[in-house]
Amino acid sequence: MKNAIDRCDICGGELAPGKTTLEIWRGEELIVVKDVPADVCQQCGEAYLSPQVSERLDDFLDEYHRHRPERYIAVPEYSAGQAMGG
Ligand SMILES: [Zn+2]
Predict the structure, then answer these.
(1) Per-residue pLDDT tens over the stretch 44-64
(2) Does residue 9 form part of some domain?
(3) What is the CATH number of the domain that holds 22?
């Protein structure tokens, strides 16, 4: 997760206020946080979080188990052998 900047680190594109969906691994668990406020690159879509949002998110990730998720989604997992192998 990166902090707020004026232009995109990756492509130099302009950032505009928007929302992003974060996928975060915590140990063996993948959790998704939707509609996180972020500055979003208008060119490549990279999202940048403000320090305040990052901090709030870190707090949530310390205790997310105490919150009931809105829903569960199934995530298909493949091995590299499947992806790369013939
Ligand atoms: Zn960009």
Answers:
(1) 999 999 999 999 999 999 999
(2) no
(3) 3.10.20.860
The alpha carbon of 5 and the centre of ligand 1 are apart by a number of angstroms equal to 12
In the reported structure, the alpha carbon of residue 22 is separated from the centroid of ligand 1 by a whole-number distance in angstroms of: 17
Determine the straight-line distance between the first and last CA of the chain, rounded to whole angstroms.
35
Ligand 1 centre from 34 Cα, in Å? 20
Classified as helix, coil or strand, 23 is strand
CA of 65 to the centre of ligand 1 (A): 33
Distance (Å) from CA 47 to ligand 1 centroid = 8
For residue 32, is pLDDT > 80? yes
Residue among 64, 59, 53 nearest 26 (CA): 64
Does the residue 2 lie in any domain? no
For the whole model, what pTM was predicted?
0.81
Q: Are 14 and 43 in contact (CB under 8 A)?
A: yes
Q: What is the pLDDT of residue 6?
A: 83
